[in-house]
User: What shape does this take?
Amino acid sequence: DGGITQSPKYLFRKEGQNVTLSCEQNLNHDAMYWYRQDPGQGLRLIYYSQIVNDFQKGDIAEGYSVSREKKESFPLTVTSAQKNPTAFYLCASSTSTSGSGRETQYFGPGTRLLVL
Amino acid sequence: RKEVEQDPGPFNVPEGATVAFNCTYSNSASQSFFWYRQDCRKEPKLLMSVYSSGNEDGRFTAQLNRASQYISLLIRDSKLSDSATYLCVVAMKTSYDKVIFGPGTSLSVIP
Assistant: This one.
């Protein structure tokens, strides 16, 4: 089945530790995104990538890093510089061609990050 | 002013009721509009796109008013399974396909 997978479902981070969240898609989508969701707030864009080996900062990129070495994969690293990392992290993908429907985003099941 | 605003609710309605959600957006360059549904502790899923002429999908009707920068979602004959948070989503073309999610409106359908 085509879709987006994220792992782990829950992740615990110690102070000063970097952690990496996995995101894989087999939808053959060009564009991939990372969002952060906090209670009572909308999704906020951390990073996005429209094509392999290219990515751009979103609205809240500080304390995060990404890579896009393969079309299918877009891992997110939460670094020790991110002082308030506890949140629900969602990865999404979309087609990046012209025409209708290109903005429709499909989400993975998310990773909940908690700080110990 | 937030780019996309919604009434946070919660909306508590009995089964069979009709409920309407409203959403406003601030950027007149917005081009595409959607409603997503998010169940508790799950990922958002596309419910329906919103077209200029309005569109219907079963019990769900979406309306767009570009002049007022306003979007609505109407749910008729509410079911218990409709209980979720409904996210208003607006997209525009910038250096990428920028998609902005509203904070969501919570709906609880009560037996």
Q: What stands out?
A: Chain A touches chain B at residues 31, 33, 35, 40-43, 48, 50, 56, 88, 90, 94, 96, 100-110 (CB under 8 Å). The first strand of chain A starts at residue 4 and ends at 7. Residues 84 and 115 of chain A are 8 Å apart (CA to CA).
